[in-house]
Every structure is written in structure tokens, then in C-alpha cells.
């Protein structure tokens, strides 16, 4: 039995576009002799829509499209994801009740009742299924029946043979942390094949994890397993997720029969229920492959993000540092050199070294380039602001002068670049400009709000500083020539906003990236607390836990006092700098936890547990 | 039986501070002869913590504080909200399992098993209970027992009399949209009094709604009902919620025995199980009272927000328009004139009328005031940016000049004010500066990113434009003198960024606020679609649905074509301007739906349903 798996580029919020694609794919699959075509989860509406799920007109429009798709299934069967609307019932938010559902039709008719609802509702990271959808579990509880009785395979006839297809949605296969296992129930109910519709973003080594989960799920009950995932990007505003697809048809022994290409909209064909299996190898796991995937994902996501704009022009500030260097290389790869406009914006503090490196980089890429000095504007601002005096208008005529400190002056430079030059020139060119921040500085707030925090997109803000260097090196290696000039790897990372940050004198950021990258990751991704850090440090295993050489930590912090002072300083920066992230641009998520709608924060200041206080007293002996 | 209800100012994320307060209140209540003291939901950790619930060290610290509170209950009983940690089990996110729980202790011992879990999990608006907590419903399902069997009252002995207290958490009383009703189950299980611990933010006329819900819940089974709610503000970064408290003890007939003062940290006393009831009147519902509550809430929330900063100094740009006028009046009321620094930042387009009004306003308030012209800086920026030329570094030496349009120049002025002057001066004075946007312009994107979108707090961004005028008028009326000068009410609302926005010539914003305020509300709060608007318009009931005079709409749009063009223009602005809201400051939520973490959006562009297209064709006859 020949099937098609349509790895669609789902356009979230645009059912008209998606359904048009689906009907074309159904027709092609029929013409190519397929008996069944499978589409991803929420293929009609898209999945990450924010609260647009509360727009009843929109939701009803999506639901009504099911009839169009069903009518297109003459001579073929189709399974697709869409929202199911039960207008007779209310959800727990008091609105019309909705389900995340799979629909099954054949020859223009519904198979059975035509649909099955998602059982397991993810609600971690970016997922909000419980917010919007009722689940099959709740239905079972409300009806006072077992989940088993509701979770039935669909019986379809193919060439005179009846086949029971167990249909599930995404999380239903990731049941380890739930008290029910939908796959076991479907198999117990006679499913002869399992079909999982997903809308599952790329994360590090997730596909290999999935291959092993599938093998595990069917090892005692071998059946073919189909995994249909979409490509494209979807977002919740603050965080943008990239969908690699990687749709897979598994043989009953869990081996791979056919895997779709990452980040390509394509329909793959495979055979179900055949004695002779085709087998393709499991992908190799390697750091090289990780970097390939990361690079491909970032380039794809940038292209996909810009596809929604009328203009493809992008603008970027080039400082001659590593962050803007990686950003511009990615932008050029994604959008073409003809669409990239770079500006170097020196003040008196920028060295010839970095100015030269910025221009060299632009030459290597063949992009548009200019330089606009901010020195005059900066000096004018200092003069104008310091000339201002506040008068108290309560009759006292008390005066308050304005005095700018060194740090104030550094921030004025950053804002002059971000809000005056970049924003001004970008609007003139009808271009979008990007933020060059990395994850380490985003976490620690080492950036100026309304300055380098600006931008419509933060393409590398989910990469730690050393990952930025690694990926930049990988690009040079892959291109087989210098894209990012060697100088940029050699100078210290520096903001160049004062004489204390002179790269030619080897001065740079007050961050020890080999350790602080890992510390930030522990806070943000491992969800650890200073209490945990202190305990590991005391036990001498902090390096092992963080995957950072212990000698690095011991050399950097000569005393426990120095270690604790730095730990508290960084925890404080991480917590307090959230006010900047509230106003920061959307981030391309590539880690296990990205800032924004993935890691949800609150402005609640800094807290230390009692156990932390106890450990600290013990360690410092006071 | 005398009880105390502690309307605490819960400090989210700071269990040490909260527990210290709780122990003091327990001791006071015992000394005052109370047999029982009741605290709000999540009184120990706070409730809106973002994903800090995933920090196991923090959560364990909070949970362990239960022992401290239990130990303080010698000679009294206490009921309080906190997180319950089941270290042996996993939640559905794979992390340690947590419950939103109430704890009950008396005389230093747990009553029964000492705790009960929340049954109903809100997951609309700002609520994310399902994300973080396991529910009693899931426990019942996992154990294969009925919810009734788990939802038992606590039996405590007071003066030799055994009393069964039914304890619930917040949403458990708001069960209309759920398939289970915890109050009915507790009453069926013999509860002689109901005690609801809440962490429930103020919303319009919510308290009256609650009074009627309580009456309804106990009308067939009269028992005393205690509602303990906290004061303070809590946030999820993008949205800040104000908690009015309004803790209430109800008599068994649903009448009010005792109501705590809004926005005041106080402990009220009341009597349970007495034949003779004290009754205080139900609050009067009126527009006057609504405005009083709104004003009190905004002032309270601003004060509470600034309480977390070291400096109380606030800076604001005063344009001479109504939005900044209302903002500065609120800031002055909340923080005192001595802490308020206002700057007027004229360019050539600002009239003497508005400049004069701004200064007059500052005089009326007795605040600090200065004026910094942006004209020179604006001209310099135009000159510098237009002098720049991009050179294509691909050997072609193709040149791209920079030309600034009229709109580009307007935005340069706004950014000069927001990112150069306000941000620069605020940092010099160690002050926080605010955003003056209203909800209508926030929704339609009628503001400049990195310009007037800037600020650490948007105090009035959840008020529509006409509500801004109303509240400003109310302040003048309440103060019995001119705070906000009459001129400001008389001139048209205008951005004054070009000659086309000259207030002296009666020119202003391209927004018809009496209608567009209501249209925006329909989109944002009623969650309606252009399809709905068009249907109501066609049926002639749009005015009635929007609570806007129909003649206003008919006079403003002379033809269906004009109506449709405006509808599509505003829907498009609302959807596309989300890129600005992503980078906008935290908003004080006062409506049924505020931007940010309350209304969650996605950058998915503009979509019209098929039904919209059909209605449009029908209406326009083409």
C-alpha cells in the first residue's frame, strides 16, 4: 500500500493558503497511485497562533475547510490536522469548545465519525494546548467512560483489504511523563499502523530521540509508524520556532524506511504493509552534524521570517566584533548580498582594528556598506542634556541639574546607533534591521535598551558567546575561504564604548565566557538556582555539572569569596535585566530554552533560598 | 467563633518576606482572641512568578516554610496558600510534581493530612495553572477514585465544638464553565463553612459579580463563606495585575458581614456560626464608583511598581496632550510631586498652545520641569543620514543613497525624544521614565517604536482614548480645581509631528476615537473578527453591539465602501502593529483584556474569513 506524507510549509493563520496546498497535494498523490496521504498537525490553521484561537469567526472558517478537503478525497484517503469545533458545548474558558484534532476521510466520505481528538496536552515551553483545547481525556471523564473506549483506530478499506489505522497527534507519542499512554491503547484496540500528525519544532538532537522513542513504543507490538511534521516557522511574538519537518515512515521493526529532507516542503512516498522492507540508515550523531543542522535552521528561519515582509532588505550594524559578523554572514546566506545593508558607526572609542575588520567582512560578503560616525551627535547630546536644568514648579524654584556619568555616556552612544542611525536609515531604505545580541549578554543584560537591544529580529540571541565563535568558524570552514576575518576571532570581545574597552590593549567585556556561558545555561536551560551552583562548587563537581573544565573555574576564582561574589552578581544581573528582555525583539529559538514566550519570566527581583544562605555561611565560614 | 482574614500584600517571589508577615499576623490574631486566621492563595511564594515554578530550589524553599507557619499556630488555627511538592512524582512536564494547595494547621499540628489541592485550573488570560500545577482532578483520575472522595472538609475543634471547614482555592468557586463543582462536593461532604483562598486581580465590577456568585452557590445550603484575597501587584513581565483584596466574610444567607478595604494591607475580623448576623450593605454599582476604583487602582499599582526600585524618581515627556497629562497626574498622586520630572521636547511643529499647556500642567502639579528642544538634533540627524551613501562592495561600486520621507522624519522626531532625550536624562537622574500611550493607539500601532513606545511602564495603555479624557476630567472634579488645563480637553488629539497635525488649525490624529475606541475593544476584548463587524453593520446593529451611537457610525461613514475600507485598514493596523507591542513596556491591566501576557498574540499577518469575503461582496455589490 503506497502512501504519501506531505511535509507542508504550513502558514500559520492562513487556512486559505494551506488548504489550497493540501488539495493540490491530494490530487498529486492520487495521480501517483497513493492510497493514503497524511498531513501534519493543525495543517489548516497553523498551530502557534497566540490567542487567535478565541476568534470564533476564524476558528469556524478553519473548521469549515474540512468539507473542502473531504470533498477532494475521491479515490484516495487523507488524514490531516485541524481544529474541531463543538458549537454545542463550552470550553473551560467559557468560549466555544475546541479540540486539536485529526480528520480522516476517504472517497469523499468521513471514515467512521471522521475525527479523533488529541489526548495529551503539552503545556511546557511554547506550548499552550490546555489554554485553547479540550482533550480526549476530559471527554472521557465527562462521559464517565474509559479513555480506551474513545481511542479507537479508524477502519479503512484499501484494495478490498480492511486496515485499522491508529491516529495520534504529536504529544500523544511523548507519553512518558503522563499517566496514560495513547499508543498502547490504540494498539490494544487493534491498530495495524500508527500515524502521528505533528507540529514539532527543531531542537538539538530531537530527531534521534524520536527515532528511539518510536522503536521503543512498537517493539512489543510491531506495526508501521508514520510521522508527518511540517516545515516553516511559527511564532508567539517573542519567540520564533523553526520546523525542520524530518517526516519519517518507520518499518514495523522501528527502522527508517523513508525520511523527508529537513526544511524542504516536499511530499515523500512509502509503502505500508509490505513483507520486504526498504531501510535507510539512522542519521549519524556528531558535533559536525549538529553545526550543520544549526546553520541550516538559522538560515532557513531568517529567510522564512523575511518572507512575510514586502521588502527583503535587511540592515545591520557592523562593529567589527564577532556577534555582528556571524549575524551578517547568516543574513547574507539567507537573503542574498544584494539585500544586505551594513553600517559601521564609530565613535572615538572604536579602533582602526575593528573598523577595518567590519569593512573587510562586508567586502568578503559583497554587501552594501557605509559608515556613519556618531561622534558629533554623541557630543551634541552630551552638551544639550547637560545644559538642561529642572526647575521645581512649586514656587520653590529649586533646581536639579543633569550630569552624565561614564556609564550614561556609554549608553548614549549605543542608543545613538540603535535608535537614531539604524532605525532612521532602515526606515529610509524600507529595510528591517536586526539585533546582534547573543544569549549570554541577553541573559546578563549586557546591552543598552533602545540601543543594541533594538531590532525586528534577534537571529543569534539563543546562541551563547562561544557558540557564536564556533558557528562563525564553521562558516569559514564550510565556505573554504575567509568570510569572517581572522582579526575578529583574535581580538577580545568588547563593546568599545569607553577607553577601558580598547581592544588593541586587549581590553574587553567583563564576562568570562568559557564559564559564564555555562552558568547562564544552567540558570536558563537546566533551571538551576544559585543554591545548586553553590552546592556543586562546594562538592567540587561544578565543572562536571556545567560541562566546563573545573580548572578553568578554579583558576578564574582564586577564593570561595570571589566565586560567591561573582555568582550573586550574575544571578542579580540575570534577574534584574529582565526589564530589557520585556522590550527585546523576537528570538530564533534553537536551544532547549529560549527567552521570550518559551521561558516566561516575571519582574520579581532577586531571591536566595535559606539553603543557599546556609551553604554560603558554611563555605565562607561566617 | 471569631476569625481573622489577613489581606496580605503578598510579595511575589519572596517567601521570606511573606512568611515573616504571616507569622506576625498569626500572633496578633491569637492575641486578639481569634480561633482561626485565613491567608490568601499562594501567600508564601506569590502566584505570578513566570516559570520560576521550575526552579526546584526555590519551590522547595517555599514548601519547607510550611513547617515555620505550622509551628506558629499554637493556640490558633491557620489556613494558607502555598505550593505543595510531591518529590516522589513527576508532573506532566517531567519536573517534580507541584500543586496549588491550601494548608491547614492548628496548635502546631496539621489538621487531617494538612492540605487540599486546587481542583479547577484557570488557563485563560494571565493564568497558567495547568502549566505549573497538577490538579486534584488528575489525582482522582490517576487513583481511579471519584473527586468527591478526595474533596473532604477539614474537621477542627474550636472551644470543644467540632467544625467541618470546606477549603477551596480561587477558581474552585468559579465553576460555571467546568464539568465539576467543588463547592457542591464539599457541601455534600458535610462542610459547615466554606473558605476560599484567592489571588484574584481587580477587574471591572468583579467584586459585585463575586457577591452574586457566592449567594448563588450557598442559596440551597446556607453556610458562612470566607473569601481571602491579597493586595499588591504581580506581573508576568508584559502585563501587571493589581490586586484589590476586597476580602469578604459572607453570612450564610450570602449577605456581607465584613469587607476589607480595597488596596490596603489589613486583617479583618468576623464571627462565624453566630445566630445574630452583622450585615453591611452591598456596594453601590455606578459609573462614579467605577471611576473611583479605576483611579485608586492605577495610583496604587504605580506606587507598588515603583516600590521595587531603589529610586522613586520618575521622568515623563509632557507634550501638552491628554495622554501625558493623565499619566503625569497619576504619577504625581502615586509618588509625590518631589519625585516627578517632566520634560517638554518641542520641535518646530509644536504649537505655543501645547507648550503652554504642558508648563501650566506642571505648575498645577508643582513638579520638576524643563524643556529641551529637539529641533537642532533632528535637523542634524536628517543631514547626517541623508549624507550617507551605501556602496556595494562586490566590485560593482553601485551606490544606494538615503532619502528620508515625511513619515521617516516624523519618526526621527519621536525617536529623538524617546531614545535620546528621555532615556538619556532619565539615566542621568537615576529615574525611570514612563510610556504615555493609550490602548487605542497601542492597538493600532499609532506610535513610533524606540520613540514614544519607550518607557519602563505604560500606566494608561489599557485605557481607550475617551476613557483617558474621562479619567482626566474626573481627577479635576475630584480635586475640585484645575489639575489638567482646560486647553488640553479642547484641542484635537494630535501627535504634532508635521504641519498636517497643527492643533491650532484643528488638525489631529487620523482616528475617530468615539467609534475606533469601540472597534478596538471589539477586537481585543470581545475577541470579534471583521466578519462579525461586517455582519452587524449589514444588519444595522453595529452601534448597539459596540455600545456606540449608530448615528455616529452612519455619519462618519457615508457609504458601505468607506466603512469597509476603514474596517480593513484598522484590522490591518491592529494585526501588523503587533511588532511594536512585542517591544513595548509592561502595561497596567485594568480592562477585561490587556495587551501582553494577557492577550497573547503571534506575528501572523492579516487574514479574512471566507464568510467575510462573501458578506463584503454582498454589501458592496461586486
Write the layout of secondary structure elements.
Two copies of one chain form a homodimer.
Chain A: E1 2-7, H1 15-31, E2 36-38, H2 56-71, E3 77-90, E4 96-106, E5 109-117, H3 129-132, H4 136-143, H5 147-150, E6 154-158, E7 161-169, H6 182-188, E8 193-197, H7 206-218, E9 225-228, E10 231-235, E11 239-244, E12 248-250, E13 256-259, E14 266-271, H8 287-306, E15 314-317, H9 322-335, E16 340-344, H10 352-365, E17 368-371, H11 375-387, E18 389-392, E19 399-401, H12 406-429, E20 432-433, H13 439-444, H14 465-479, H15 486-490, H16 513-524, H17 530-539, H18 542-546, H19 550-556, H20 560-576, H21 578-582, E21 587-589, H22 610-620
Parallel strand pairs in A: 1-2, 2-3, 7-8, 8-9, 11-21, 15-16, 15-20, 16-17
Antiparallel strand pairs in A: 1-14, 3-4, 4-5, 6-7, 9-12, 10-11, 12-13, 18-19
Describe this protein's structure:
- The relative contact order of chain A is 0.08.
- The model of chain A has no long low-confidence stretch (mean pLDDT 96).
- With 622 residues, the first copy, chain A, is α/β, with parallel strands linked by helices.
- The first copy, chain A, contains 22 helices and 21 strands.
- Chain A has a six-stranded mixed beta sheet with strand order 5-4-3-2-1-14, covered by helices on one side. Chain A has a six-stranded mixed beta sheet with strand order 6-7-8-9-12-13, with helices on one face.
- Chain A has three domains: 2-277, Carbon-nitrogen hydrolase (Nitrilase/N-carbamoyl-D-aminoacid amidohydrolase, 4-Layer Sandwich), CATH 3.60.110; 287-508, Rossmann fold, CATH 3.40.50.620; 512-622, no CATH class.
- In chain A, strand 8 (193-197), helix 7 and strand 9 form a beta-alpha-beta unit.
- At the A-B interface, helix 2, helix 4, helix 10, strand 17 and helix 11 of A face helix 2, helix 4, helix 10, strand 17 and helix 11 of B.
- Strand 18 of chain A pairs antiparallel with strand 17 (368-371) of chain B.
Amino acid at each position: 500500500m503506497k502512501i504519501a506524507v506531505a511535509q507542508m510549509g504550513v502558514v500559520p493563520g492562513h487556512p486559505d493558503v494551506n488548504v489550497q496546498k493540501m488539495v493540490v497535494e491530494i490530487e498529486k498523490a492520487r495521480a501517483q497511485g497513493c492510497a493514503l496521504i497524511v498531513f501534519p498537525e493543525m495543517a489548516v490553521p497553523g498551530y502557534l497562533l497566540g490567542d487567535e484561537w478565541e476568534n470564533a469567526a476564524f476558528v469556524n472558517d478553519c473548521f469549515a475547510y474540512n468539507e473542502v478537503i473531504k470533498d477532494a478525497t475521491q479515490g484516495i484517503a487523507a488524514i490531516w490536522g485541524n481544529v474541531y469545533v463543538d458549537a454545542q458545548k463550552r470550553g473551560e474558558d467559557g468560549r466555544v469548545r475546541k479540540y486539536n484534532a485529526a480528520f480522516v476521510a476517504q472517497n469523499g466520505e468521513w471514515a467512521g465519525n471522521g475525527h479523533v481528538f488529541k489526548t495529551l496536552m503539552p503545556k511546557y515551553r511554547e506550548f499552550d494546548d490546555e489554554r485553547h483545547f479540550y482533550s480526549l481525556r476530559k471527554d472521557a471523564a465527562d462521559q464517565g467512560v474509559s479513555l480506551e473506549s474513545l481511542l479507537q483506530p479508524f477502519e479503512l478499506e484499501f484494495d478490498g483489504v480492511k486496515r485499522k489505522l491508529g491516529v495520534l497527534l504529536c504529544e500523544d507519542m511523548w507519553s512518558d511523563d503522563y499517566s496514560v499512554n495513547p499508543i498502547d491503547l490504540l494498539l490494544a484496540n487493534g491498530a495495524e499502523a500508527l500515524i502521528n500528525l505533528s507540529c514539532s519544532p527543531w531542537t538539538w538532537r530531537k530527531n534521534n530521540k524520536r527515532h528511539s522513542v518510536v522503536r521503543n513504543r512498537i517493539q512489543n507490538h510491531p506495526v508501521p509508524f508514520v510521522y508527518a511534521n511540517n516545515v516553516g516557522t511559527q511564532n508567539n511574538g517573542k519567540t520564533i520556532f523553526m520546523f525542520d519537518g524530518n517526516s519519517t515512515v518507520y518499518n514495523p521493526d522501528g527502522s527508517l524506511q523513508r525520511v523527508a529532507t529537513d526544511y524542504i516542503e516536499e511530499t515523500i512516498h512509502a509503502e505500508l504493509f509490505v513483507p520486504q522492507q526498504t531501510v535507510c540508515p539512522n542519521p549519524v550523531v556528531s558535533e559536525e552534524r549538529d553545526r550543520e543542522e544549526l546553520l541550516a535552521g538559522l538560515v532557513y528561519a531568517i529567510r522564512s521570517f523575511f518572507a512575510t515582509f514586502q521588502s527583503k532588505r535587511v540592515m545591520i550594524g557592523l562593529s567589527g566584533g564577532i556577534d555582528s559578523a556571524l549575524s551578517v554572514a547568516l543574513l547574507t546566506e539567507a537573503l542574498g548580498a544584494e539585500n544586505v545593508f551594513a553600517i559601521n558607526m564609530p565613535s572615538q572609542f572604536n579602533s582602526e582594528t575593528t573598523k577595518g575588520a567590519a569593512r573587510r567582512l562586508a567586502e568578503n560578503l559583497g554587501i552594501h556598506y557605509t559608515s556613519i560616525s556618531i561622534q558629533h551627535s554623541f557630543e551634541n547630546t552630551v552638551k544639550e542634556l547637560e545644559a538642561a536644568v529642572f526647575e521645581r514648579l512649586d514656587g520653590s524654584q529649586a533646581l536639579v541639574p543633569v550630569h552624565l556619568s561614564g556609564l550614561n555616556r556609554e549608553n548614549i552612544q549605543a542608543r545613538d546607533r540603535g535608535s537614531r542611525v539604524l532605525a532612521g536609515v532602515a526606515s529610509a531604505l524600507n529595510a528591517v534591521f536586526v539585533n546582534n545580541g547573543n544569549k549570554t549578554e541577553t541573559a546578563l543584560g549586557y546591552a543598552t535598551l533602545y540601543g543594541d537591544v533594538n531590532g525586528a529580529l534577534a537571529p543569534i540571541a539563543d546562541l551563547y558567546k562561544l557558540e557564536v565563535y564556533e558557528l562563525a568558524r564553521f562558516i569559514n570552514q564550510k565556505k573554504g575561504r575567509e568570510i569572517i576575518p581572522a582579526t575578529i576571532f583574535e581580538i577580545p570581545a568588547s563593546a568599545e564604548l569607553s577607553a577601558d574597552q580598547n581592544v588593541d590593549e586587549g581590553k574587553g567585556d567583563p564576562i568570562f565566557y568559557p564559564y559564564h556561558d555555562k552558568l547562564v545555561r544552567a540558570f536558563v536551560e537546566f533551571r538551576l538556582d544559585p543554591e545548586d551552583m553553590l552546592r556543586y562548587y562546594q562538592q567540587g563537581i561544578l565543572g562536571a555539572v556545567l560541562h566546563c573544565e573545573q580548572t578553568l573555574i578554579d583558576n578564574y576564582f582564586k577564593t570561595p569569596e570571589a566565586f560567591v561574589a561573582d555568582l550573586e552578581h550574575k544571578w542579580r544581573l540575570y534577574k534584574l535585566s529582565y526589564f530589557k528582555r520585556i522590550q527585546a525583539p523576537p528570538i530564533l529559538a534553537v536551544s532547549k530554552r529560549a527567552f521570550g514566550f518559551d521561558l516566561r519570566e516575571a519582574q520579581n527581583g532577586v531571591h536566595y533560598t535559606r539553603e543557599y544562605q546556609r551553604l554560603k555561611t558554611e563555605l565562607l565560614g561566617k
